[in-house]
Amino acid sequence: MAYRDNKHISVMNDYWKIKGLDQYTWGEDMVRAAFEGTSVGDVNFGEVGRTFRKEAIQKGIMNMNIFPYVIWEMQDQVNDCKAGILLSNDDNSVHAWDEAVAFYTGSKLLGTGVNPSSPGILQYALADKRCKNFRTCADGFEGGAAVNQHIWQLFARGRDAVREAGGLTGSDLLNKCDIAEDSMDKIAALSLIPFIQGTLRYLYNTRSYASSKEAGELWAFATPILPFVHKVDPAAAEKLYRRAWKLDYTTDSYTAVKEALESTYNSLGVGMGVGLVTCADVGEMYNEGQEVVIPGCSDSSGGKDKFPTWGIALLSIFAFSVVVVVMLITVMYCKERAGNPVFQPLIEITNPLHYVQQRHLRENSAKKGMADIVDLDGKV
């Protein structure tokens, strides 16, 4: 599978093509325009200020260029796995998968285990930084980001799967490759969480006034998540796009943009990664006084966990139908007990004389009473 055909990168490519950018070079084009002070899409970097451009360059390199490259390196390893050429790289290491880890963490050595010893840089460092704002670190405000621990475990899971695939063939080989692909999908989805946290932070900071720096930060954090938000809800994505790219802070309120974004959480991602982004994982933002300034959302109120309107309508129709059926059965039962059944036996319908005779006998029996009714032995 080629870089442009990866299912995650395809979501990005398709979205930026809709927005008038080059389908395959949009990440490079954004950073280049920020360097040169030119226009890209709806942003004119010659008019937004140098601080905006600085944020766009520094964070754009990672968020719009390195982030998709991490995904590609995992896809590269999945490709090698399915082709059965795991050792075609430089040595016996899981070369492409290792590169994905390196581009996620940066140049610092992180150590081993669930809790690496170094904070790293790049996306790894971003997650650790944002978790302190949103109390999503492993221990609340302390320690590394919980999402990094989850991603680190998935990196290890994918690594082990492709190592174990060496020498296998057929379905045994593909099963191991599928584990690596599953890990890729989940890592890509979980990687959105720090970007979402950054977006929420600067949505809040630009709610009443947007400095060049804060507007640039919002642009840099909203841009990598926009394609995935659009995949779930184009209207929600457009609200965020207007604010981050068109610098329109009046058409949609801060609350409207925030709630629209939150409604997409549970459906963000691609493949096996869908459903991993939750309100709980994003958390709620605290200020330096440890007070909540951005309340969190409820997973039961947004995304795919929300019961659809058509589902509620069908459920209501079903409940009404059950009530009607129960009422009809009750009426039929009461008429049957009273000797006036709703449906007469077939013989009574096809033989009217028999029906008249049987009705006459029933009426006479009722008049005589139980004392005149005897069994074959002559007993009452």
In words, what does this structure look like?
With 380 residues, the chain is mostly helical. It has 3 domains: 3-305, no CATH class; 309-343; 347-380, no CATH class. It has helices spanning 7-18, 26-36, 50-83, 95-105, 122-134, 146-164, 170-190, 192-205, 212-232, 234-244, 254-262, 279-282, 309-337, 346-350, 352-368, and strands spanning 39-40, 43-44, 137-139, 142-145, 285-286, 292-294. Strand 3 (137-139) and strand 4 (142-145) form a beta hairpin. Helix 1 packs across helix 9 (212-232). The protein is extended, with a radius of gyration of 33 Å. The model is unreliable at 301-312 and 373-380 (pLDDT under 50).
Helix content: 55-70%
Poorly predicted runs are: 301-312, 373-380
Counted beta strands: 6
Summarize the biggest pleated sheet: 2 strands, antiparallel
The whole-angstrom Rg is 33 Å
Mean pLDDT: 85
Q: Report the end-to-end length measured between terminal Cα atoms.
A: 90 Å
Structural class: mainly alpha
Number of helices: 15
Major sheet: order of its strands? 1-2
The topology string of helices and strands comes to: HHEEHHHEEHHHHHHHEEHHH
Number of domains: 3
Give the DSSP E fraction (strand runs of 2 or more residues): under 5%
Shape descriptor reads extended
SSE arrangement:
Elements: H1 7-18, H2 26-36, E1 39-40, E2 43-44, H3 50-83, H4 95-105, H5 122-134, E3 137-139, E4 142-145, H6 146-164, H7 170-190, H8 192-205, H9 212-232, H10 234-244, H11 254-262, H12 279-282, E5 285-286, E6 292-294, H13 309-337, H14 346-350, H15 352-368
Antiparallel strand pairs: 1-2, 3-4, 5-6
Helix pairs in contact: 1-9, 2-3, 3-4, 3-7, 3-9, 5-8, 6-7, 8-9, 9-10, 10-11
